[in-house]
Amino acid sequence: MIVEIIFLSILTLILWSLFKKPSEYPPGPWGIPLFGSIPFNATKVEAQLEDLRKKHGTIFSWRIGPRLFVFLCEPKVIKEAFQSHIFSDRPDFIMFSMLEGEKKFGVAATNGVHWHNNRRFTLRHLRDLGMGKSTIVSAIQHEAEEFVKTMKEQAGIPAPLPKSLIPAIINVLWQMV
């Protein structure tokens, strides 16, 4: 009996230390381990975020499922955060891991020097293909004007983006090639 109590106590301490909120995290709802604080309320998420901002201030965290989200609600704080190298990496989404495996490639999923080299390579080759040159600028402007005409036809009606967006993008890419 005493062994079970000791074992249960040790297990409780281990689980508590694994799932407790670290002291350096901003204030906010922590929730249940692995599930977080899932927004079950009938109110919109925007209203819940506004309530959290009023309760915890301009910087707060919200654990939704296993992911922790930190919200910055003031332009000055956002600008200061994005100038820091701590916030410069992209989030580690499961989708990127499933598509690319352990090694990350491309511009969307990489960070640091690898991202910088990929970005430089991509921009150099896009410039070689005509990006930033007057012929491409005029083609982009023409496609944008056509797309705006399509959007004006849909004005005032809630609907997804028109299907003409994809041909507009493809036409610009085709001009570059």
Automatic annotation (TrEMBL):
Protein's UniProt keywords contain Iron: yes
GO biological process: organic acid metabolic process; xenobiotic metabolic process
Any GO CC annotation of this UniProt entry: cytoplasm
A GO MF label: heme binding
Pfam families to which the protein is assigned, alphabetical: p450
Domain of life (superkingdom): Eukaryota
Annotated keywords: Iron, Metal-binding, Monooxygenase, Oxidoreductase, Signal
Signal sequence range: 1-16
InterPro entries: Cyt_P450, Cyt_P450_sf, Cytochrome_P450_fam2
Stated family: Belongs to the cytochrome P450 family.
PANTHER family: CYTOCHROME P450 306A1, CYTOCHROME P450 508A4-RELATED
Protein name per Swiss-Prot or TrEMBL: Cytochrome P450 2L1
Native organism: Armadillidium nasatum
